[in-house]
């Protein structure tokens, strides 16, 4: 008796029993006890078929009072109704014993149901299903789970199911704690499965990158697409990735499995070398692979263009059957021809075929549902991929032996070339030695010139500082002796210019200090409020054509910095602000604060800087407007940026054309560890 005959026999048997009244719609309530962690309530479920699909819950309750519900005619663990346009109403009469918990979970572990409505007593409807948003599920799970509050007296729970795919309704009622443990266990097992596939994929991809053997690349695509297909079929794709795309979820498994099957036949051709041993089988496998890829592409196009992809959905399993038969035939022929790695190949496909048969028998209720039969396809695919890895490893062993033989031949050839290479190396060493000596001489000359330059600069600075110091001292005495306001102003101007000349020499020496790096940096604690006030006061006299305003912050602002380098930074920024802004305009110097950093801001009312030049202005010898009358060497801002970065700070520019410019030198509040800086 074939499977269809057995199904028909079951159907007519239960139909006859229903007509005799033995399976009439008598509501048998199911009482749940605390000793039961999970209960299959299928024997207590009653069903009502709604061919129109228009009945609502109020209509159903009225029909229930008229005993319109009938007991489900099935012997298996789930209700199977096949393809149907009708809506199916299921009724569960549930209660609990006195010591049993009140919270239970009703689970429907089947993903192919498009619309599910759950009605509990004294509560609203829960509408979910594969065609509805994932957020509609009351419990975040790959299956459909509904919490129920049971009482000691019997209550009626209703479930409405409709779908265009075959309607199969397995039911499980769990204690809440046991449900959580079951979900955790299932998730762990699934994670182990997908993790194993992921490891195999990555391993073979790395082998492909290293060996450049396309067998490993084809195996990577085969295992990856099959894993994605099972991942989508188990509901994880909809749960975590394409959450709001139910239409894609409906075809994603077929798309990935089609790509996986196509990659499997290409892998078979490459691994068994059917092009050489079985050219006709090779052509047939190539055609099947192309058709499978085309079917998967057709499913994607159907999804994007919103038309029914029935022909493509049917093509994937139909094309897989001849492909599997040809693969097994080719494996046997190649094994007999002497390719030993083909034995692992045949074992792999045998494991997959066995798992497929077990899964099919379970779908037709010819095998009981348990952990093995429910996941037979996943288990068999794991063994298949593992055995295929062994087959590839066996090929690696064979190839290693061939490479060793080839290496021996290569070594003999290398020995012949070794003498000539040694002679060339000796000649090259002599040439390198001569060139190294030349470069060392040039480096010594450059070092001597630089030392002379630094000594010359130091001498110039020293010679100018002595007379400048005398001038400053005499001016200070003159300023104390005279009371005339005009004379004091002139004296202050002379003093400011003299002080500025000294600072210019200091700034000239800072360039050499920067090049000599950390050994010449002398950081100290600087109170910016007092230090900046004194410096700006000295600059006011020199920049008499501009108004310098200073805004300080109320907080105590102390940074660790080299005082002369910091002075060079501020003077450069103030000079630039006055140089590139109109006379009689205001230059504002103020302090800013942000977490962990203190900033010195200098803003002007000049022409501003276009955004495209905000980075270029820090380049050495770079001038944005070289035609302006006020111009320098183009080294100031480069010099400023180096000093700030030396102090672990940063420089910020805020500027637009015709709106002026603001430069902010940010320094860290805490001590700067100059030894850790990468100079």
Sum this structure up briefly.
The protein has helices spanning 3-19, 57-65, 176-211, 214-233, 236-240, 246-272, 274-277, 279-305, 310-336, 342-363, 371-374, 376-481, 485-515, 528-542, 563-579, 636-646; strands at 30-32, 38-39, 46-50, 70-71, 78-82, 87-96, 103-108, 115-119, 125-128, 144-149, 155-162, 167-170, 172-175, 523-527, 547-551, 558-562, 586-594, 597-603, 650-655, 661-668.
Tell me what the structure shows.
By secondary structure, the protein is of the alpha+beta class. Helices cover 56% and strands 16% of the residues. It has 16 helices and 20 strands. The protein has helices at 3-19, 57-65, 176-211, 214-233, 236-240, 246-272, 274-277, 279-305, 310-336, 342-363, 371-374, 376-481, 485-515, 528-542, 563-579, 636-646; strands at residues 30-32, 38-39, 46-50, 70-71, 78-82, 87-96, 103-108, 115-119, 125-128, 144-149, 155-162, 167-170, 172-175, 523-527, 547-551, 558-562, 586-594, 597-603, 650-655, 661-668. Strands 1, 3, 4, 6, 8, 9 and 11 form a 7-stranded mixed beta sheet that branches. The protein has a 5-stranded mixed beta sheet with strand order 15-17-18-20-19, covered by helices on one side. A hairpin with a 5-residue loop joins strand 19 and strand 20. The radius of gyration is 43 Å and the shape is flat. Mean pLDDT is 80; it is low at 1-27, 629-633 and 674-679.
């Amino acid at each position: 008796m074939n499977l269809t005959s057995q199904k028909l026999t079951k159907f007519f048997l239960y139909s006859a029993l229903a007509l005799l009244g033995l399976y009439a719609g008598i509501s048998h309530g199911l009482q749940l006890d605390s000793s039961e962690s999970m209960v299959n309530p299928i024997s207590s479920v009653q069903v009502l078929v709604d061919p129109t699909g228009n009945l609502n819950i109020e209509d159903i309750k009225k029909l229930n009072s008229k005993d319109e519900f009938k007991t489900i005619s099935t012997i298996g663990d789930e209700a199977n109704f096949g393809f149907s346009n009708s809506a199916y109403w299921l009724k569960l009469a549930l209660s609990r014993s006195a010591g049993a918990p009140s919270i239970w979970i009703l689970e429907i572990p089947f993903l192919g149901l498009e619309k599910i409505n759950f009605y509990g007593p004294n509560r609203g409807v829960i509408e979910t299903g594969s065609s509805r948003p994932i957020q509609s599920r009351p419990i975040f799970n790959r299956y459909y789970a509904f919490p129920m509050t049971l009482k000691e007296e019997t209550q009626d729970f209703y479930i409405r199911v409709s779908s265009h795919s075959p309607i199969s309704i397995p039911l499980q009622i769990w204690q809440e704690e046991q449900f959580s443990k079951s979900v955790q266990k299932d998730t762990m097992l699934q994670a182990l499965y997908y993790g194993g596939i992921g490891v195999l994929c990555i391993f073979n991809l790395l082998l492909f990158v290293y060996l450049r053997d396309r067998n490993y690349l084809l195996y990577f695509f085969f295992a990856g697409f099959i894993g994605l297909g099972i991942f989508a079929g188990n509901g994880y794709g909809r749960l975590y990735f394409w959450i709001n795309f139910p239409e894609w979820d409906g075809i994603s498994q077929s798309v990935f499995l089609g790509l996986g099957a196509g990659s499997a036949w290409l892998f078979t051709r490459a691994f068994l070398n059917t092009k050489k041993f079985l050219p006709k089988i090779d052509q047939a496998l190539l055609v099947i692979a192309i058709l499978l890829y085309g079917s998967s592409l057709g499913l994607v196009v159907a999804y994007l263009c919103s038309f029914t992809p029935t022909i493509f959905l049917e093509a994937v399993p139909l094309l897989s059957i001849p492909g599997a038969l040809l693969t097994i035939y080719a494996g046997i022929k190649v094994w007999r021809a002497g390719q030993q790695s083909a034995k692992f190949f045949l074992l792999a496909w045998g494991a997959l075929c066995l798992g497929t048969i077990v899964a099919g028998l379970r779908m037709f209720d010819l095998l009981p549902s348990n952990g093995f039969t429910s996941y037979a396809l996943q288990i068999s695919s794991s063994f298949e991929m593992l055995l295929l890895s062994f087959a590839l490893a066996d090929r690696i062993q064979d190839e290693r032996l061939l490479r060793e033989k080839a290496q021996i031949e290569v070594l003999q050839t290398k020995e012949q070339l070794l003498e000539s290479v040694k002679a060339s190396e000796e000649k090259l060493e002599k040439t390198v030695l001569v060139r190294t000596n030349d470069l060392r001489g040039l480096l010594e000359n450059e070092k001597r010139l630089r030392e002379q330059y630094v000594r010359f600069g130091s001498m110039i600075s020293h010679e100018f500082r002595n007379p400048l110091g005398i001038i400053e001292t005499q001016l200070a005495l003159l300023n104390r002796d005279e009371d005339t306001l005009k004379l004091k102003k002139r004296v202050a101007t002379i003093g400011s210019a003299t002080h500025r000349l000294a600072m210019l020499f200091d700034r000239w020496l800072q360039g050499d200090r920067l090049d000599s790096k950390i050994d010449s940096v002398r950081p100290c604690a600087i109170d910016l409020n007092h230090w900046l006030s004194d410096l700006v006061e000295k600059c006011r006299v020199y920049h008499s054509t501009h108004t310098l305003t200073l805004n300080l912050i109320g907080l105590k602002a102390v940074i660790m910095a080299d005082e002369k380098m910091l002075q060079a930074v501020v003077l450069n920024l103030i000079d630039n602000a006055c140089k590139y802004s109109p006379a009689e305009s205001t230059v504002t110097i103020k302090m800013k604060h942000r977490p962990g950093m203190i900033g010195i801001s200098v803003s002007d009312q000049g022409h501003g800087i276009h955004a495209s030049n905000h980075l270029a202005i820090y380049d050495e010898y770079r001038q944005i407007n070289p035609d302006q009358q006020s111009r320098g060497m183009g080294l100031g801002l480069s010099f400023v940026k180096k000093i700030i970065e030396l102090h672990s700070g940063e420089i910020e520019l805020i500027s637009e054309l015709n709106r002026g410019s603001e430069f902010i030198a940010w320094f860290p509040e805490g001590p700067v560890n100059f030894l850790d800086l990468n100079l």
